[in-house]
C-alpha cells in the first residue's frame, strides 16, 4: 500500500494505492482534512492513467516527412543539445524558450527554472500557471504582501456564517470540497456569483443561500457596488482599518460613484440583491458580532483583462469588513492545478527565483546564485509572461526553439490556432509528456517521462500545505524522470552547478534556495512529511510548526500593514456587437481535466463525456433555430468550433458556455482571444464576443 495524493487538481485528495502492477493498481481515498474521505470520479479512475493505450515509452523524433521515428535516449539528447547550441549561436541564448506547468512536482518545477537559467542560459521561461493563478497572485501580493491561495485551512469554511464564491464551480472542479460548505449552507449563507446556474450555484437552492447570476465580465462592478454599500451604510470595521490597513480613503472615494442602481444596469444584478449581499456579509463580520465570512475567487472572476483589479476589489472588501486574519474569515483564491501553488513559487515564472523571490532583486540573485554555485551575473534577468512568450515564437526577433514540460498549449492557450502556427514556425520543439498530446504531436522531439504513481516528490496544495507524492509502481522501461533529463542535457550543454536526480536531494536544495524567501520551505523535509506532520509554508526552521493561518497579527509587508488599492472599471477587451452578439464563457466539467490530454484517454471518463457541448438558453436556441441536440457552430474573428447543443434555462439568454477540454472541431480556444490583464498577463478566457448558428450539414 502506498499513501499518496491524486494526480490532478489542487485539492490533492489523499489516496492510497493498492499493492500491484500498473494494470492492477487501485486508488481509494484516505482520511484527510481537505477531502475528508472523498475523491471525485477522476481520482477514483486515476490509475487508468498508468496503462493508457498510447503511453509514451520511447523518445520520438520527427522526420522530414512529418512522421515520428523511435530513437535512443543518447541519440535524442545529443541531437537536442547540438540543436540548442546551433540556435544559441545564431539567435543568442534567448533564442531558446521554456514553457512549464503547474502540475509538475516542486522538485521538477524548481529544477526546470534552474535548467532554463543555467543550462539553456535563457531568460525566456514561463508556464501555464499564468493562465490560471496570475491575477489572484498579483492582487494578493500588492494588497497583502504574499500570494498563498488559501491563507487558512479549507476546513475553516465550515464554521462561517457566509461564504461567497466569485466564479468558482467547486461542485464540479473540486467535488470533495463541497463538504466544507455544509455548515454555511445550513445557515443560508452560501453565495455563488456565476452567469450560469452551475452545479455549485444549485447548492444555494432551498434556502441555502443565493445565486447571483451576473452578466459575464462584470464581477468588478458588482464588488465596487458592494464596497459602495458597506462604506455608505457605515458597515466597515473602522477599528481594524485604522490599526491594520492603508489606502482606505482612496477606495472609499473611488467607490462613491458605484451606487447599486448603477451597478444593476451593468451587472444585471438587482439593486435589492446588491444591498442584500452587502448586508449579509457585514452581518457575518466579526466586528458586528457575526460568525465570520470568507470571500473566495475562482477562475470565473479572475480570467479577465481586469482580473487583477477584480481580485483586488474583493480583497479591499474583505479588508473593509475586517475579515483578513480574523479567526473566522478571510480572502482566498482557489488554486487550480495539482501543484498550482508550489509551481508558482520556485522559479518557472518569468520574473521569479525559488522561494517566491523576484529575479530582478539583487539580494535574491545573490542568495540563489550561492546555492546554485554560480555568480549572480550568470543568472539571466526577467523574461516575459506566457501569452507574450507564445506570441513571440518564431517571429524575427523571437525564440527559435521551445521546450514544453507539462502543458498542452495548442489546446489550452487562448487563440490556440495562432499558437499552433507559431509552434510550426520554430526550428526545434521538444515536448516532455506521458502521452502524445496535441502539442507533443507538433514537436521535433517527444521525450517520455514519469508520472505521479511512478515517482517521488512533493506537491503544495491549495492551502499552502506541502504533501508527499510517493512512488507505487515502476515506470515502464524506457521512460525517464525529468530530473534525469535536465541533468543529462545540462551536462551536454556544459552547464555550471550540480544537477541532482533524486527528488529528495533536489528538495533539500530547494529548501536552501527558498530559505528567507516569501515562500520559505527551509524547515520542511521529507522526514518530517513522512512522519505525518502537517506543514504549511512559511516554515523557516526544522522545529518550526509551519503556518496554517497567515495574517493573524500582521501582514508580510514592510510596514506590517495591508494596503487597500483603488481600482477602476474597464470591462472586457471584446464586447458584443451586431456581428458577434453573444458572450462566450468557457470552463470545466466534472469528468475532464484541463486540455483533456489525460482524461480523454481514461475510458470511464471519456465514455461519459466524449465530446464538447454548447450550453445555450432555450430562448437563444429558438432564435437560431436549434432544437434538441442539433449541432451549433461558434465563431469569433479568430476562428470557430462546433459541438452539440445542450439547451438549458440555467444559462443567461445572452451567453453560451463551452468546456475547453476538447480538440479538433470541439476546440473552443480556437475562438477565445489572447487579450491579457495588464498587471498579471492573465488571458481573458472567460469572455469574448461570438456569433452562434445552427451548423448546416
Ligand atoms: N473537473 C475539473 N476540475 C478541475 C479542473 C478541470 O480541468 N476539470 N482544473 C483545475 C484547475 S487548473 C482550475 S484553475 C480549477 C478551476 O476551477 P473553477 O474556477 O471552479 O472552474 P471554471 O469552470 O473554469 O470556472 C468557474 C465558473 O466561472 C463561471 N464564469 C464564467 N465567466 C464568469 C464571470 O465573468 N464571472 C463569474 N463570476 N463567473 C464566471 C463559469 O460559468 C464557471 O461555472 O479547477 C481545477 N479542477
Ligand atoms: N478556454 C479556456 N482555456 C483555458 C482555461 C479556461 O478556463 N478556459 N483554463 C486555463 C487554466 S486555469 C489552465 S491551468 C490551463 C491548463 O491547460 P494545460 O496547460 O494544457 O494543462 P494540462 O491539460 O493539464 O496539460 C498537462 C500536460 O502535461 C502532461 N503531464 C502530466 N504530468 C506531467 C509531468 O510530470 N511532466 C510532464 N512533462 N508532463 C506531464 C499531461 O499529459 C498533459 O499533456 O488551461 C487554461 N486554458
Ligand atoms: S477533487 Fe481533484 S484531487 Fe480530488 S479526486 Fe478529484 S481531481 Fe483528484
Ligand atoms: Mo488552472
Structure, explained:
The protein is of the alpha/beta class and 697 residues long. It folds into four domains: 50 residues, N-terminal domain of TfIIb (Single Sheet), CATH 2.20.25; 265 residues, Rossmann fold (3-Layer(aba) Sandwich); 184 residues, Dimethylsulfoxide Reductase, domain 2, CATH 3.40.228.10; 113 residues, Barwin-like endoglucanases (Beta Barrel). The chain is built from 22 helices and 27 strands. The strands form seven sheets. The protein has a seven-stranded mixed β-sheet, covered by helices on one side. A hairpin with an 8-residue loop joins strand 1 and strand 2. The model has no long low-confidence stretch (mean pLDDT 97). The structure holds ligand MGD (2 copies), iron/sulfur cluster and molybdenum atom (MO). Molybdenum atom binds next to loops.
> How much is the radius of gyration in Å?
24 Å
**End-to-end distance, in Å?**
53 Å
Name of the CATH first level of the largest domain: Alpha Beta
Count of alpha/pi helices = 22
Average pLDDT across residues? 97
Q: Give the name of the CATH architecture of the largest domain.
A: 3-Layer(aba) Sandwich
Low-confidence segments: none
Q: How helix-rich are the residues, as a percent range?
A: 25-40%
Main sheet?
Answer: 7 strands, mixed
Going by helix content, strand content and strand pairing, the class is alpha/beta
CATH topology of the largest domain: Rossmann fold
Walk me through the topology.
Elements: E1 2-5, E2 14-17, E3 27-29, H1 41-44, E4 60-62, E5 68-70, H2 73-91, E6 96-100, H3 106-120, E7 125-127, H4 134-144, E8 162-166, H5 170-173, H6 182-186, E9 190-193, E10 209-212, H7 219-232, H8 238-244, E11 245-246, H9 248-254, H10 260-267, H11 271-284, E12 293-297, H12 299-302, H13 307-320, E13 329-333, E14 352-353, E15 357-358, H14 362-372, H15 386-392, E16 401-405, H16 409-412, H17 416-424, E17 428-433, E18 445-448, E19 457-460, E20 466-469, H18 482-492, H19 503-514, H20 526-530, E21 562-563, E22 582-587, H21 603-608, E23 613-616, H22 618-623, E24 631-635, E25 640-647, E26 655-659, E27 688-694
Parallel strand pairs: 6-7, 6-16, 8-9, 8-12, 9-10, 11-21, 12-13, 16-17, 17-18, 22-26, 23-25
Antiparallel strand pairs: 1-2, 2-3, 4-5, 4-18, 14-15, 19-20, 22-27, 24-25, 24-27
Amino acid at each position: 500500500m502506498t499513501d499518496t495524493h491524486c494526480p490532478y487538481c489542487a485539492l490533492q485528495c489523499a489516496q492510497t494505492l493498492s499493492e500491484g502492477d500498473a494494470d492492477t493498481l487501485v486508488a481509494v481515498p484516505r482520511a484527510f482534512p481537505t477531502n475528508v474521505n472523498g475523491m471525485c470520479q477522476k481520482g477514483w479512475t486515476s490509475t487508468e492513467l498508468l496503462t493508457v493505450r498510447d503511453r509514451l515509452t520511447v523518445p520520438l523524433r520527427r522526420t522530414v516527412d512529418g512522421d515520428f521515428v523511435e530513437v535512443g535516449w543518447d541519440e535524442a539528447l545529443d541531437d537536442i543539445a547540438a540543436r540548442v547550441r546551433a540556435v544559441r549561436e545564431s539567435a543568442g541564448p534567448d533564442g531558446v524558450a521554456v514553457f512549464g506547468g503547474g502540475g509538475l512536482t516542486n522538485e521538477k518545477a524548481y529544477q526546470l527554472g534552474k535548467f532554463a537559467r543555467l543550462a539553456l542560459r535563457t531568460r525566456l521561461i514561463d508556464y501555464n500557471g499564468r493562465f490560471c493563478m496570475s491575477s489572484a497572485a498579483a492582487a494578493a501580493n500588492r494588497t497583502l504582501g504574499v500570494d498563498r491561495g488559501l491563507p487558512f485551512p479549507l476546513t475553516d469554511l465550515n464554521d462561517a456564517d457566509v461564504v461567497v464564491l466569485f466564479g468558482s464551480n467547486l461542485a464540479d472542479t473540486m467535488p470533495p470540497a463541497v463538504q466544507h460548505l455544509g455548515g454555511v449552507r445550513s445557515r443560508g449563507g452560501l453565495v455563488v456569483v456565476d452567469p450560469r446556474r452551475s452545479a455549485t450555484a444549485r447548492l444555494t437552492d432551498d434556502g441555502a443561500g443565493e445565486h447571483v447570476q451576473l452578466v459575464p465580465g462584470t464581477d468588478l462592478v458588482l464588488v465596487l457596488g458592494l464596497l459602495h454599500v458597506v462604506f455608505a451604510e457605515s458597515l466597515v470595521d473602522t477599528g481594524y482599518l485604522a490599526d491594520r490597513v492603508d489606502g482606505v480613503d482612496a477606495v472609499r472615494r473611488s467607490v462613491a460613484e458605484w451606487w447599486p442602481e448603477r451597478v444593476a444596469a451593468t451587472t444585471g444584478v438587482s439593486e435589492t440583491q446588491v444591498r442584500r449581499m452587502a448586508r449579509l456579509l457585514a452581518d457575518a463580520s466579526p466586528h458586528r458580532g457575526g460568525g465570520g465570512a470568507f470571500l473566495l475567487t475562482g477562475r470565473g472572476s479572475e480570467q479577465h483583462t481586469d482580473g487583477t483589479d477584480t481580485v483586488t476589489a474583493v480583497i479591499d472588501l474583505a479588508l473593509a469588513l475586517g475579515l483578513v486574519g480574523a479567526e473566522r474569515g478571510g480572502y482566498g483564491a482557489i488554486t487550480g492545478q495539482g501543484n498550482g501553488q508550489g509551481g508558482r513559487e520556485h522559479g518557472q515564472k518569468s520574473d521569479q527565483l525559488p522561494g517566491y523571490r523576484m529575479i530582478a532583486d539583487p539580494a535574491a540573485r545573490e542568495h540563489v546564485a550561492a546555492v546554485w554555485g554560480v555568480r549572480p551575473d550568470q543568472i539571466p534577468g526577467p523574461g516575459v509572461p506566457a501569452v507574450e512568450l507564445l506570441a513571440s515564437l518564431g517571429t524575427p526577433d523571437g525564440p527559435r526553439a521551445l521546450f514544453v514540460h507539462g502543458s498542452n498549449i495548442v489546446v489550452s492557450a487562448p487563440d490556440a490556432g495562432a499558437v499552433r502556427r507559431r509552434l510550426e514556425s520554430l526550428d526545434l520543439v521538444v515536448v516532455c509528456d506521458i502521452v502524445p498530446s496535441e502539442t507533443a504531436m507538433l514537436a521535433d522531439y517527444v521525450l517520455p517521462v514519469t508520472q505521479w504513481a511512478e515517482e517521488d516528490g512533493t506537491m503544495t496544495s491549495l492551502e499552502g500545505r506541502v504533501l508527499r507524492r510517493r512512488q507505487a509502481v515502476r515506470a515502464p522501461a524506457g521512460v525517464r524522470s525529468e530530473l534525469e533529463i535536465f541533468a543529462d542535457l545540462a551536462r551536454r550543454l556544459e552547464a555550471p552547478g550540480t544537477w541532482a536526480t533524486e527528488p529528495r536531494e533536489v528538495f533539500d536544495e530547494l529548501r536552501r534556495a527558498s530559505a528567507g524567501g516569501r515562500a520559505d520551505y527551509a524547515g520542511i523535509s521529507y522526514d518530517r512529511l513522512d512522519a505525518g506532520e502537517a506543514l504549511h509554508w512559511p516554515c523557516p526552521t526544522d522545529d518550526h510548526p509551519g503556518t496554517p493561518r497567515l495574517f493573524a497579527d500582521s501582514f508580510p509587508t514592510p510596514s506590517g500593514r495591508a494596503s487597500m488599492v483603488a481600482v477602476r472599471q474597464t470591462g472586457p477587451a471584446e464586447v458584443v456587437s451586431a456581428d458577434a452578439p453573444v458572450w462566450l464563457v468557457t470552463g470545466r466539467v466534472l469528468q475532464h481535466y484541463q486540455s483533456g490530454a489525460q482524461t480523454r484517454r481514461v475510458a470511464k471518463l471519456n465514455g461519459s463525456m466524449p465530446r464538447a457541448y454548447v450550453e445555450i438558453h432555450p430562448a437563444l436556441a429558438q432564435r437560431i433555430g436549434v432544437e434538441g441536440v442539433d449541432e451549433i457552430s461558434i465563431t469569433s474573428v479568430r476562428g470557430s468550433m462546433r459541438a452539440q447543443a445542450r439547451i438549458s434555462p440555467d444559462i443567461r439568454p445572452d451567453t453560451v458556455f463551452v468546456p475547453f477540454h476538447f480538440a479538433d472541431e470541439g476546440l473552443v480556444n480556437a475562438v477565445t482571444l489572447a487579450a491579457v490583464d495588464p498587471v498579471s498577463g492573465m488571458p481573458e478566457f472567460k469572455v469574448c464576443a461570438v456569433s452562434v448558428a445552427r451548423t448546416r450539414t
